[in-house]
Amino acid sequence: MDTFNVTILGCSSATPAFGRNPTSQIVQIAGSYLLLDCGEATQIQLRKYSIKFQRIDHIFISHLHGDHFLGLPGLLSSMHLLGRKEPLHLYAEEGLKNILDTTHHYSRTTLQYPIIFHPLDMNKETEILRESKFTVRTLKMKHSIPCCGFLIEELPRPLRLIKEKIEEYSIPIVQMEAIKGGADFKTNNGKMIANNELTLPAIPARKYAYCADTIYNEEIIPSIENADLLYHEATFTEEMKERAKQTMHCTAKDAATIALKAKARKLIIGHFSARYKDLNPLLEEAKLVFPNTFLAEEGTKFEVDFKIPA
Question: Is 67 known to be catalytic?
Fold first, then answer.
């Protein structure tokens, strides 16, 4: 089974607080390393958790509030200084390219590797990356500036062959791929064997939904429905509900409600306000609605797993 996990690098909103750094996550899937947001101290956190900079080929920035991208210029510079030559793909609102071009112009920096910039349309959900085993789509968030989330989803898997049936009917290797794709099998004596006698259901494709800064928004539910792992911002507790609305953020209860209605299997909450030294009140609030909730604590690795069908 291919690796599919999420490592939390930062979980604080707006400013670093109580040892917590601004938002950043690494997603490891099918041999690829994807960086989701790049707040301050991201490169320090990558070193701390022994994640090699040069393995990152795709960086996704949800929006242009500083706590989600201010770590990027330094990370790009470090990749350059460490000898990177391979292209780096960067996905963000068009304005980020202007910011980086200006930074490099005035610092007289010429990176020794190409950045391939992919401007994002924040007004619609779009597939922005397709690899051999997974895709990445944008998710439309509702925030005070244009903002998107990201849905990372494996491509559908083939049916599973029943070993005993393959041996019983002496099925040649050259026909196995077709059977895994749903084909029936015809024996040498002309007997047709139905595909459902030869195969088991495919292992479900897994998906991770990263819901960045947003006000409570049920419109996102169809896009993230049945996510195996859902990250959703939870900046405040319910006692700060009005503040959440003013700043276009969510409470822990809001995040849990979205997870419940979307039928997610597991919820991670993060983007915590600096007013909370103790995060347990946020966790407890979310668990009252959605028990399978966890804090996006830095250094924690979450597997994107599933139950294999019988």
Answer: yes
